[in-house]
Design a protein that fits this description.
The structure is a single chain. With 358 residues, this protein is of the alpha+beta class. It has eight helices and six strands, in the order ααααββββββαααα. The two termini are 31 Å apart.
Length: 358
């Protein structure tokens, strides 16, 4: 049976974790939502992709933010216990920091196990879906969303379009160039203005070109046909976006384990580092949250955030170094975890194994 203190401490951690996670996710999701809406308004993304990307973005953010949310939650709960002097009553009964951690395991352990599963197995699936939705949304983007001054390719380079400028107020683009290759025959079309529309006779979306020329023929044979037109419809081909499944971010654990390349090893270590970092940060929070009676609840919170920022940035830097071969795969990212583990041991020794020193 769990003691009253065990249940009380676990409940406080759970409620605080939910509140902290909700705030962090709200900040991240609102920023992502504004960015997605901006891309839709600029015509760079279709509107129907926003909700899907937002939902998947919440899952991605939850995995990355969970270690920090756990860290801050433990800091806040322990900070409140110190502020209200409850911690001294707990210590008077012979319960120190390490024993409090064992009580916290009732809530923390399931969260870390779930986080590990999500980081190792679900994260690559989520990343694949996000990239696939982005590619599909790009395919459905209006011609007005094309970046002026850049050549956009489709059908592996057999269809190329270029526009000089887009006028969203009038719904037209100016000075368009289209290259279309089908087998040995190519066609090149230029027009002063273009609009996008649905063309049932062309079975899909099309571009309505106005005041232009069309050049068609087989290169090297010299028998090109040149046509001038006032108005002409051109079907927009399917972009057929292909997801690069060789990207380590999209690989399964089995694929990563079967590869000895440094980028794959770096990706595997990164996925494993998420739950490891969560556990180490929770352990770090216990000695770090110890404050004197006159210190406030948030006395150590600023220091905790600084330590987390240094820790997370070192993890990102170590992953990059392992992927580039600048850092040996062993210990790789776990060298950073080792430094944090030494910091935790030193803080526990400073506070005393049972947490009586302040």
């Amino acid at each position: 049976m769990f003691s009253i203190l065990n249940r009380y401490f676990s409940r406080e951690l759970a409620l605080t974790f939910v509140a902290v996670s909700a705030v962090l996710l709200a900040v991240v999701v609102s920023k992502s939502f504004v960015s997605l809406l901006t891309r839709v308004m600029e015509g760079k993304m279709s509107a129907d992709a926003v909700l899907s990307l937002l939902g998947l973005g919440i899952l991605e953010a939850a995995i990355l933010l969970a270690p920090f949310a756990l860290f801050i939650s433990v800091m806040l709960v322990l900070g409140r216990l110190y502020r209200d002097s409850e911690i001294y009553a707990i210590q008077a009964n012979g319960i120190g920091l390490l024993r409090l951690f064992r009580y916290a395991v009732l809530f923390i352990l399931p969260v870390i196990v779930l986080l590990g599963y999500a980081s190792v197995f679900l994260a690559p699936q989520i990343a694949q879906q996000v990239e696939a939705i982005k590619l599909e949304a790009k395919e459905r983007t209006s011609v007005l969303g094309l970046v002026p001054g850049q050549f956009i390719e489709a059908r592996q380079g057999d269809w190329v379009v270029f526009i000089e400028a887009a006028e969203r107020e009038t719904g037209t683009a100016r000075n368009i160039f289209i290259y279309d290759r089908r087998g040995d025959r190519i066609s090149i079309e230029t027009a002063r203005s273009v609009q996008q529309a649905e063309a049932p006779e062309l079975e899909g979306k099309s571009l309505i070109l106005s005041q232009g020329q069309r050049y068609e023929g087989i290169p090297g044979e010299g028998n090109f046909t040149v046509l001038s037109f006032e108005r002409h419809s051109v079907r927009i081909p399917e972009l057929n976006p292909v997801l690069d499944l060789d990207d380590p971010e999209f690989m399964t654990v089995a694929q990563l384990l079967g590869s000895h390349a440094t980028p794959e090893l770096a990706e595997l270590q990164w996925r494993l580092s998420i739950p490891v970092a969560a556990l180490l940060l929770v352990l770090l929070a216990f000695p770090l949250s110890v404050v004197r009676p006159r210190q406030g609840r948030f006395a150590k919170l600023g220091l905790a955030i600084i330590i987390y920022l240094i820790y997370s940035n070192l993890m990102i830097l170590a992953e990059t170094w392992v992927a580039d071969g600048q850092l040996p795969a062993v210990p790789g990212l776990f060298a950073v975890h080792g430094v944090i583990a030494l910091l935790i041991v030193s803080l526990f020794m400073k506070q005393g194994a049972w947490g009586h020193r302040t």
